[in-house]
User: Fold this.
Amino acid sequence: MVIRYDHIWTFRGSVVTVETLSSCTTLIPHSNPWRWINDSGWTHWVYVQLMTDWTEKDTVYSVFLCFYKITFELTLNVMFLITSMLSRLQINTNGFVATSEPSGESSYLGNMPPKFGIIAALQGDLDTSDGVGRVFYRQDSSPDVLRQAADHINRAFPEDDEVSPTHAAVVTWVGVATQEAPSRGDGIDTRRNTFQLVLASLETASYAVVLYARDGVQFTSTPVGDRPMVMHSGFSKGLVRGFLFSSQGPYYRTSTDDEASVQALAEETNSGLRGVWVYEIGTSPYFSNVAPGEVTDLPTEEEHGASNQRRPFDGQQVEYPPYGSEGEQIQIHSVQYQPHQPDNPEVVVVDDTDINKCSQFADCQDYSAGFCCHCRPGFYGNGIQCVAEGKPQRMNGKVNGRVLVGGSASPVEFSSNDLHSYVVVNDGRSYVAISDIPPSVGPSLQPLSALGGVIGWAFALEQPGFKNGFSIIGGEFVRQAEVTFLPGNEKLTIRQEFKGIDEHDHLAVSTTLEGRVPEVPRGATVQIDPYSEIYQYSNNLITSSSTRDYTVSFPDGSTETRTYQWRQTITFQSCQNDESSRDTRPTQMLSVDQVFVMFDAQSEIIRFAMSNKIGDVNGGQPQENPCFTGRHGCDTNAVCRPGSGTQFTCECAAGFIGDGRLCEDVDECRENPQICSSHAICNNHPGTFRCECDDGYQFANDGHSCVAVDGPIDPCEEGTHTCDIPERAQCTYTGGSAYICSCLPGFVGDGRVCQDVDECQPGRCHQDAICYNTQGSYTCQCRPGYYGDGVYCSSEKTKTQCEAHRDRLLGTTEISIRGPRPPYPPVGQYIPTCDENGAYEPTQCHGSIGQCWCVDPNGREIPGTRSGPGTRPMCIDHGGVPPPIGPTPRPDVHPLPPGTHLLYAQSGRIEHVPLEGYDMKKDDAKPLLHLPEKVIIGVAYDCVDKMVYWTEITSPSISRASIQGGEPTAVITTELDSPEGITVDHLSRTMFWTDSVKDRIEVASLEGTQRRVIVDSDLVNPRAIIADPPNGNLYWADWNRDAPKIETSYMDGSSRRVLVKDDLGLPNGLTFDPQSSLLCWADAGTHKMECMNPGRGDRRQVLEGIQYPFGITAFGKNIYYTDWRRDAVVAVDRYAGRESDEFQPQKRTKLYGITAALSQCPSGQNYCSVNNGGCTRLCLATPTGRTCTCPDNVVGVDCV
Assistant:
C-alpha cells in the first residue's frame, strides 16, 4: 500500500486543529516526523522537510499531510470585530477564518452563528483533498496590496474620510468543491467555488473585504449528514463569558438560510463593484459593531472595465483572476505593529477569549510561544485561579460512591454527602468535615486523613524557595489516589475533581469513593502520627507515594498499630508557553503534623484537622522565623512577611485593612458606591466584593454592565389587565401574557365585572340587631337599648374586666333626693381607665401623684415603665381594635413585586412600601398581610427564603409568611408573654426575640424548634433587638425608665457588655448597617437619632428633634423609622443629617416595627453558615467561631 500526498501547504505558524475523516493506511518512514494524536486516539504523522526562506530569518515548512480538514494558525496584527484585538487568526479549509478555537464540524456546519468567533467568507463542508482545491494565505503590507484595499474601502464608504490601511492579511480559497465523491477520478467536472477574504487594518479601525468569482457561486449548499445545508457568510464573536455563564455574543449575517442570498453574493455588492463586499469590523477603542458598505448600485460593464478595480490581490495565483505561476512561494511577513504598552512590556492586549481565561487578579503575558496568565503581586495561583495571600480559604463539595467495610458484602452508599473544609493559610492549618456518615462506616474512615490531605497540600505553609500546590497548579485539577491496607490488601480508590474557585470564593470539589476498608469498631478512636510525603513534579503530572502507620484504640482499652500504602497522581493543565514555569523544583516534601481525626456518631460527621508545610525533601536548615513555623500571631486574614533572623511583619491580605495583628474587611461597596454599574447591587464579601444585577437585569457580554432582560410582562403588575377594580376583584398572573380574574369574597361575577352580594338575609344577625350590607361584606349592630356584637344582643351589658375593675373601685351609685349621683373616686385612689371597647388603656396614670405606667392586657403594671410627673411612657396597645363583624379577609399574603421594600407593622396588618433606590414609592404602598384582632409589634425578614417574621401580643406568638404569597404560619405559640423585638440570622438560620414581661432574650431555629434562652438576667424592658450575622454579634435595647441601656453579646449570649448607658431616655428602635458597621438607635425620650461603631465606641448624633420613634431600619445611606405621633414612616439621610421624606399610610393609627426586605441577601458568612457549623442542634455564631448547644427542652442529649 502506498500513501498518497494529497497536496502541499506552505505556511508559517502551527497546525491548530485537524479533523480526520479517514486515517492513513501506510506510513512511509521519514527522518523528521511530527506526531499528532487526535481526539479519538488515532495516531497520525506529519512529514516535515525544512527549507530556508530567502529572508534568511524565517523558516518555511513544507508539510505533507494525510488529513482532510485542517485549521492553521497565523500570527497577525489585525484589529478585529467587537471588542477584540486579535493577535491570531485560524484559517480553516471550510471557507472561514476563526478568531478562537473552532469546534468540531458537526457543531457549526449549517449553523450561523457558531459557538466560536468566525469570519465566514463562504462556510460549508468543503473539499481540498483532490489536488485541485487549494487555500492560500499570507500577511501582506506591500504598497500595491494596501492601495487595492484602500480603493475598495473608500469606494464603499464615500461619505467617510479616506483611509489608508497599514497592514493586510489575504486568504484565498481556490477551486474548492463540496465534500462528496466526484463522478470522475480526476474531479474535473466537479462544481467549484473561488472566493477571497482580505482583512485590512490601520491604527484606529479594521475592515473586511470579501470578493466572489465573476462566474458566480457554483454551489450554494454542501451535504451535512444525509441532507444539504445552505452555506453561510458573516461575522460572529461566538460565545461570550459573562459573570456566571456564557451567552451568544454579537453577530452579523451577510447571507440568510435562503440559497438565493448565497447566489447574490457574486451578483450584488455594497461597494459599487459586483461581487465585492466591504465591512468595517472595528473602530478604536471600542470595536463594537459591523458596518456594511454603503454603495449598492452596480456599475455598467463599461464602467467596470474602464476602472479595472476588480483585480485580485496578487501573489496568490489561481485561474480567476490570473495569478502567475502556480509554484511561486508566498512570503509571510513578520509582525511589525505592536499595541502601546505603557507599564509592562510583556503585557499585551489580546482577544477577549484569551483575556477571559485569566483571573481578575492576573495579567496576561505574551511569550514567544503564546500567552500565559500570572497572578498579580499580593495574590498567588496559576494565573487562571488567583487568591489573596494570607486570606483563609474554604472548600465545598459533595461525596459520592460505595464503600465496603470489613467482610461485609453490602456496600455503604454515599450520595451527595456534604464536604466542607477551612484552611488558615498563614500557618498551614486545615480542617475538613464530611456530614451524614452512617455509623456503620464512619469509624472505619478515620484512618483516611488523606481525604482532606490534598487541601492541606494545596494551601500548605511554604518554606523558603518552595511553593504549595495552589501556587503551582491553581484550583483546577484531578486527584486519583489508591489506598492499600495491610495485611488484608483491602483497596480503596479516591477520585477528587477540583473545579476552581466558585462565585462564593470557595474551592469546589467533587469526591468519589470506591472500594473496601478494614473495619474499625464503633467507639474506637484512631491516632495518626506526624508524617512526610514526597511530591514529584513533571509536565502536567504530580505523583506521590508513602507508607503510613496508624493506631486504633479499642473501647476495651487495647490498641493496635495498622498500616496502609498510599499512592496518588494529580493531573492538571499548565501553560506551556512560559519557560520559567519549568523551574518548579522536581521534588518537594509535604510535612504533616498535629493530625486529628474524629467520628462523631451522634451528628454523623467525620472530622480531620492537620498542620501542613511544604519544603525541602532533605529537610533543609531548621527554620526559626515564625513565618515558616506558623507561630507568628498574625491575624487569620494576614500574610506573614519574614525578615532577618526571627524578625517578621504581619500584613493584612488584599481586601483587608489593619496592622496585620488585627485585620478588618474593607467594604469596597461603601467606599466606592459606583464600583458596580447601574442596575447592579454591590455585595461585599470578606476580602472582595461582587456585583449582581437587579431583578429583571442580567450581565451584558462585558461581564460588568447590566442590561434589561426581555422577559414576559406581568399584566397584573403593570396594570394592563381587564379585571375589575382591586376593591372588587383580584388579578392572578399565570405566566407569559396570561392572567386570571376572580371576584373577591362578598362579590359575584366573572372577575372582569363583579357585583356586591347582599349578605343581609334573615337570620344573618341577632333578632335584636340590624344588618347593614357593605361592599363585599356586612355588619351587625344591636338595636338601641341592647348590647353585644350584633351576632348576639342582650338588654344587659356585660362588663369587661377593666369596667368591672373600675366600677368596683368607684363603688355603687348613691341615691339621693336629687336623683342618682354618679360614682366618684375615693380621695387618693387610683382608678383604671378603660377605652371605648372596655379594654384597659395601655397607659394608666395616677392623678394624685402624677405618675403614669404601662399595663398588660390584664391591667397589670409592666415593671420599669413608671414615669415621673409631667411625662408619659410609650406603651403598646393590647388589641383595643374592635373585632370586625361578619366575614373578614383571609389572612393571605399579597405577593410583593421584585425589588427592595420596607415592611412595617400597623395594628392588625403588615404593609409594604417599595423602594426605588432610596426613595419610597408611596403610590405603590399596599398591605402585605391582614391579621384582624391582632397587634403586631416586631417584624423581621429572612432574605434566603423570602419570609417575613413577626411578633404579636394579643395571643402572644411568633409567626411567619412568605412574601411571595401564601398563608401565615405560627412557629412559636407557647411560653410567651409579650414578645416584641425580633431579628433573623439568615446565615445560621435562627431568630432571636425579646419578651418584655418574661424579661429575657431567646433564640430558636426558624421553624420554631431548637429553642433556648440566652439572656435572662438584668433585663427590665427589653424591646428592640438586631443581629450582625457575619460577625456573630447581637445587640438589644432595654428602655427601663430607671436605667435605660443598649447592650451587646455574642450570638450565644456570651461576652455580654453594656455599650451605651448615658444620655438615654426611651431607646425604642435599633438597627445595624453592615456596610458601615454602625449601630444606630432612635430615642423617644431624648428625641434623638444616634449611631456608633460598636468596636470603637465613637458615638455621634445623626438627627435631633424627632418626635416619638418606635421602629427603625437602615438601608444604604438612609435610616427609616416609624413615628407614633406622626403616624408615619420617615426617611432620614444619615450623611446629610436631615429628614428626606415622609409617608403616611391611609389608615392613621400607630406604626410599630419596621424592617427592610432586601432583594438579595447581604454579603458575608459566619461559622454556622455551612453545614450548621457541624453542630447537631443549635449553632450560634461568635466573632471567632461558633458554639454548639442544646435547646432548653432537650435532656440527656450530647449537643456538639
User: Anything to note?
Assistant: Residues 712-752 form one domain.
